Amino acid sequence: MLSNIGIPGLILVLVIALIIFGPSKLPEIGRAFGSTLKEFKKATNDLVNGDEQNKTSERNLQAVEKNEEKTGS
User: Fold this and answer.
1) Which distant-in-sequence residues (6+ apart) come within 8 Å of 17 by Cβ?
2) Where are the domains positioned within the chain?
3) How far apart are CA 42 and CA 53, in angstroms?
4) What distances in angstroms separate CA 54 from CA 49, 50, 57, one per listed residue?
5) What pLDDT does residue 63 have?
6) Is 24 helix (H, G, I), strand (E, B) or coil?
7) Tens digit of pLDDT for each residue in 47-65?
8) Which helix (H) or strand (E) holds 1?
9) Separation CA 20–CA 26 (nearest Å)
10) 7-43 pLDDT, tens per residue?
11) What is the Cα–Cα distance from 39 to 27, expressed in whole angstroms?
C-alpha cells in the first residue's frame, strides 16, 4: 500500500502535515510515532520469543517425564 505513494505523494503528505500541525509540533509527533513503533516491535518480538521459549520448555518437560517413566523414578 505505501509502496505506491512515490516521491510526489510523500511531499504532499508532508506539506499537509506541516499545514495542519505546524512546524513546532512535527518533531514531537515524529518522536511519539517512532517510540510507539519501537514499543510495538519490542512487544511483538517478546511475544514471538516467549512463544518459542514456551515450546522449548514444554519439549524439555516432556523429555524429562519420558526419562522418569523409563527409569521408574
Assistant:
1) 26, 29
2) 23-73
3) 16
4) 9, 6, 5
5) 72
6) coil
7) 888 766 666 777 777 777 7
8) none
9) 10
10) 899 899 989 999 999 989 989 988 999 999 999 999 9
11) 18
